[in-house]
Design brief:
Structural class: alpha/beta
CATH architecture of the largest domain: Up-down Bundle
Largest sheet: 6 strands, parallel
Number of domains: 2
Strand order of the largest sheet: 1-8-5-4-2-3
Shape: globular
Number of strands: 10
Radius of gyration: 21 Å
Helix content: 40-55%
Bound molecules: glycine
Number of helices: 15
Length: about 350
């Protein structure tokens, strides 16, 4: 399986880390984390030889939160690498959620025109999404991921025990992306994700489902690393989802990204059924599962113009048309589907009706 390595115990984690870092001179290994992963996850890493490999001066800790994925944090990483004599043969270990793997990947991609980096995702969401696939970057000028580069991690080291420190809402955010991967792949994988309980994360058997979920993205990225075509399907649920997310921020009642994507999946599966004949049975099962895990976002038809306006700003659009990645069945992907505003409103009507508003 490409560059994704699962480890199941702390001993396995140490052995793998030592094997990776062993190829680098002792003073050339750096670790990036944030205040959360510094507190909860770094202690699991630093034991025996690794303690010596990672002196405090080589640990770069950023304040947690996506607002810190910015040029100042990036400059701090570059400065720390530079001050401590990092060469082109240095290695950066990124220990954290998507914020850390994005900014750490970008710092590594650009320092001395590129050093190697390994991602150790500490959230389920980062594990199934940001940590793999080579998208790196920072927010800039008030815009998310405005500056960045495609640059894959040398390895993604997956240790599900990290997720034990996560609350229900963080787990649910990762689960939303796993549901998406289920829909993009095969009926068998979709079934196992639909049946997965959040409480089962970190239990025996979970690692297999997690690896299969990550492999769905890995296979898609392998076919289209720089998102010229097929990779757009990883935005399933995100066109409506991003509109829900930014609208909720505007209302000053922000919802987590994964929740917005899950609700977006309801609308986009409705469009898939209505326009491409996506079958009723998996449609019903998926939307009831989403309602059960994520509850509902309350809005009304008065908010449609604002939501549609936000969909017009989606990066995947061309011209003034709103484009979606839709499905004619599980795993049957159709990118660049233009949908008119009236039909999008119909999907929002369906959502409100289904949620009982
Ligand atoms: N998060 C979508 C992608 O990596 O393409």
């Amino acid at each position: 399986m490409n560059n994704i390595t699962p480890v199941h115990s702390q001993d396995e984690l140490h052995a793998r880390l030592l094997a990776i870092t062993g190829a680098y001179p002792q003073d050339q290994v750096f670790l990036l984390c944030d205040s959360n992963s510094h507190r909860h996850c770094l202690p699991l890493l630093r034991r025996g030889k690794l303690e010596a490999l990672l002196p405090e001066t080589h640990v770069i800790c950023l304040p947690a939160g996506d607002q810190n994925k910015n040029i100042d944090s990036l400059s701090l990483i570059w400065q720390t690498l530079s001050r401590n004599g990092a060469t082109r043969h240095a290695l950066l270990l990124n220990l954290g959620g998507g914020m850390i793997t994005d900014i750490g990947g970008f710092a590594a991609a650009t320092f001395k025109r590129g050093i190697g980096f390994v991602n150790l995702p500490t959230t389920l969401l980062a594990c199934v999404d940001a940590a793999q696939g080579g998208k790196t970057g920072i927010n800039f000028n008030g815009l998310k991921n405005e500056v960045g580069a495609f640059c894959p991690a040398r390895e993604v080291l997956v240790y599900p025990a990290f997720f034990q420190t996560l609350g229900k809402s963080d787990l649910a955010c990762g689960y939303a992306e796993m549901l998406k991967h289920g829909l993009l792949s095969t009926p068998g994988h979709w079934q196992e994700v639909i049946r997965l309980e959040l409480a089962d994360v970190c239990q025996a058997g979970f690692s297999g489902i997690l690896m299969r979920s990550m492999q769905v993205k890995a296979d898609i990225v392998a076919q289209d690393p720089t998102e010229n075509g097929l990779r757009k399907c990883l935005n399933l649920g995100h066109t409506v989802g991003h509109a829900f997310e930014s609208w909720s921020h505007e209302q000053q009642q922000p919802v987590p990204h994964g929740y917005a994507v899950a609700w977006g999946l309801i609308c986009e599966l409705y469009l898939s059924m209505r326009l491409l004949g996506f079958p009723k049975e998996p449609f019903q099962q998926t939307i009831y599962r989403i309602k059960e895990v994520f509850g509902a976002l309350p809005f009304s038809c008065k908010n449609y113009p604002s939501l549609i306006e936000k969909m017009h700003h989606d990066k995947k659009n061309s011209g003034d048309k709103i484009q979606f990645a839709l499905l004619s069945d599980i795993g049957q992907i159709h990118i660049d589907q233009v949908v008119d505003e009236k039909t999008i409103e119909e999907s929002l009507d369906f959502y409100l009706d289904f949620m009982g508003y």
